[in-house]
Amino acid sequence: MSLSSFQLSSARAWPAGASSLSDPDTVGDDPGLRQQLLRDTVTQILSAPVYDVSIETPLQPAARLTAALGNQVLLKREDLQPVFSFKIRGAYTKVSRLSAEARARGVVTASAGNHAQGLALAAQKLGIVAVIVMPVSTPAIKVHGVRSRGAQVLLHGDAFPEALAFALALAEERGLNFVPPYDDPAVIAGQGTVGVEVLRQHSGQLDAIFVPVGGGGLIAGIAAYVKYLRPDIRVIGVEPEDSNCLQQALAAGKRVVLPKVGTFADGVAVAQIGAHNFALCRHWVDEVITVSTDETCAALRDIFNDTRSITEPSGALAVAGLKKYVAREQCRDQVLVAINSGANINFDSLGYVIERAGLQGLSD
Ligand SMILES: Cc1ncc(COP(=O)(O)O)c(C=O)c1O
């Protein structure tokens, strides 16, 4: 596969995963295939073995946000996972489903972020070789985070696209299994277990779930499970204004490649929604709300005020979208869930976050 075939920009546009529930491009608008894909995805979610390596995270009431917004706000604390993000769920599910023969060859990916740490831990747990290609500019703290979980780190290329090309070449050369960060049915199934937990943890009135979107692994899994069981609950994606690949794909009715992608919320800086992801999202996601950098920073502050925890920008997007939704709808007494998806933020960037949050005024 050549670099150009992925239409790589400064951000990520990933190749589709190797395994397939059903070919995502053939699902289209066929109601029968759509239902089959939904059922297959739910079946895979329910058998995802995530608790070998991740925890059932709390669904925590956010008292201050609840009071300020006049709606009950619950935070799904995925920032409390062992790798400080939900990504371990999908990475582990994918790797654990490889055959013994494939596992013996090892796994490879390219990532400077949460997928790298998730895959490293998944491979360590299963005792298999993991090679993670990271751009040479990756902060030492992240390189260390991956190495400390036993993965081999190869620093290659100035930017992400070169690291990805190198990882794919390695997969080809050494027979390693490339583990995609989102565009894969097993990865989607693992992330979907977040939805299972939300419905189990809160069985009463639940009006909407807000989910940050990068390549769409998390939202595809959550939307599939939630819509299968509780179609009355709205599933709402949240993207940065300058990185809205799902919103644009839904508007166009097909996947589009963003020519340029903002990188402040680095976990969701993706140029094109995944193919398997879009096949689910186009039918089961109700809408996408976009938020600015300042709104994201203000949400980070709101989460801190309620939990005394810091999330990363991508991890705060859902709360930012939830606040915007309440302001737009002027709703009251609804039950709203936001997925706090991760906490891998460089301490040094907190000064910038605080400054930008200040521009949004106080939430209380
Ligand atoms: C913290 C965080 N939130 C959200 C996302 C978006 O997840 P997805 O790519 O499955 O949409 C990511 C992806 O890496 C992430 O690291």
Write the layout of secondary structure elements.
Blueprint (H helix, E strand, L loop, with lengths): L23 H4 L3 H16 L12 E3 L1 H7 L2 E6 L9 H10 L3 H6 L1 E4 L3 H13 L3 E5 L5 H8 L4 E4 L4 H15 L2 E2 L6 H17 L6 E5 L4 H13 L4 E7 L4 H8 L22 H10 L2 E5 L1 H15 L5 H17 L5 E6 L9 H9 L6
Parallel strand pairs: 2-10, 3-4, 3-6, 4-5, 7-8, 7-10, 8-9
Antiparallel strand pairs: 1-2
The protein binds pyridoxal-5'-phosphate.
Family: Belongs to the serine/threonine dehydratase family.
Pathway: Amino-acid biosynthesis; L-isoleucine biosynthesis; 2-oxobutanoate from L-threonine: step 1/1
Cofactor: pyridoxal 5'-phosphate
Keywords, separated by commas or semicolons:
single chain, 364 residues, alpha/beta, Rossmann fold, binds pyridoxal-5'-phosphate, lyase, Ser/Thr_Dehydratase
Explain this structure:
By secondary structure, the chain is α/β, with parallel strands linked by helices. It folds into 2 domains: 24-86 and 184-358, Rossmann fold (3-Layer(aba) Sandwich), CATH 3.40.50; 87-178, 3-Layer(aba) Sandwich (Rossmann fold). The chain contains 15 helices and 10 strands. The strands form 2 sheets. The protein has a 6-stranded mixed beta sheet, sandwiched between helices. The chain has a 4-stranded parallel beta sheet with strand order 5-4-3-6, sandwiched between helices. Helix 4 packs across helix 6 (114-126) and helix 13 (293-307) crosses helix 15. The N and C termini lie far apart (52 Å). 55% of the residues are buried. Mean pLDDT is 91; it is low at 1-21. Pyridoxal-5'-phosphate binds at residues 85, 87, 113-115, 182, 191, 212-219, 267-268, 312, 314-315, 341-342. Pyridoxal-5'-phosphate (PLP) binds next to helix 6, helix 10 and helix 14.
